[in-house]
Amino acid sequence: MEQRIAGRAPAVVTARVHRIGIRVAEMVPRLDRMGVASLEAHTVVATATSYLPEAVDAYLRLPRDFADRRAVEGGKTSLMLLCDQLDLLSTTLGRISDAISRQDANALIAHGDFLAEKFGKGSLE
Fold first, then answer.
1. What does the pLDDT look like over 81-92, one tens digit per residue?
2. Is pTM, for the whole model, over 0.90?
3. How many CB atoms lie within 10 A of CB 97?
């Protein structure tokens, strides 16, 4: 997606797309821990394959002057609406990533508790 928009979208868009790309790339190797039927895993994949490209492509189909300067909804330009949508996607991915990390941290804590119980507190204190 970043390559597709290079030179075609303003920096505010490319920065947001880059941030979403990083979040998706960080989460893809962790998707298996979410389970096959996980809504969160579906959201990550759909963001990369559908939600992000559809939003950006709709924006790019518009003439730049119209997209960046003319208010189309609620006093916002198409550029502002796209930025809002990209921010929502990024925030959602951040929440999913945090949830996965919390699961991993909880597993580490539980393992530490197990070791402490099995072998004594020692250096775990």
1. 999 999 999 999
2. no
3. 17
Half-sphere exposure of 54 (CA within 13 A, CB side): 8
In the block, tokens 């389970």 appear at 35
**DSSP string for residues in 70-100:** SEEETTEEHHHHHHHHHHHHHHHHHHHHHHH
CB atoms within 10 A of CB 105: 10
Q: How far apart are CA 69 and CA 86, in angstroms?
A: 18
Backbone dihedral region of 35: left (phi > 0), alpha (psi from -120 to 50 degrees) or beta?
left
Nearest-CA neighbor of 86 among 37, 14, 7? 14
Which of 1, 31, 30 shows the shortest CA–CA distance to 18?
1
2-30 per-position pLDDT tens digit: 999 999 999 999 999 999 999 999 998 88
Q: How far apart are CA 21 and CA 33, in angstroms?
A: 20
